[in-house]
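can u do me a favor
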């Protein structure tokens, strides 16, 4: 058990500390993107999720998760040296999926 009264919160891994430790990671807020494509005529019920996570070495990672709605799907992670590069790739992937018919997921689906 930690007997110390003092807590080095600036060293913790919570979201608030990441903003204090590396303010460059927050220049462009890019939240997770949840998309789906449903076509009952083709028995198609797909989802696609994109998110950016910081890496331990100051870079950023684009996480993609896709598959049939109701399954855990497949996951792929791609690491970048900067947050800006990750944001660019996320926006490009999102645009590609939207052109293929994916739409925003409504709450409750």
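np, heres the sequence
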């Amino acid at each position: 058990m930690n007997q110390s009264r003092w807590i080095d919160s600036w060293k913790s891994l919570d979201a608030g500390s990441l903003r204090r430790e590396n303010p460059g990671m927050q220049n462009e807020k890019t939240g997770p993107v949840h998309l789906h494509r449903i076509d009952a005529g083709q028995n198609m019920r797909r989802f696609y999720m994109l998110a950016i996570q910081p890496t331990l070495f100051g870079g950023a990672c684009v996480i993609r998760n896709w598959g049939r709605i109701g399954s855990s799907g497949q996951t792929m992670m791609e690491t970048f040296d900067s947050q800006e590069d990750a944001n660019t790739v996320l926006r490009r992937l999102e645009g590609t999926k939207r052109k293929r018919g994916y739409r925003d997921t409504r709450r409750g689906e």
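Helices lie at 15-21, 83-99. hope that helps!!
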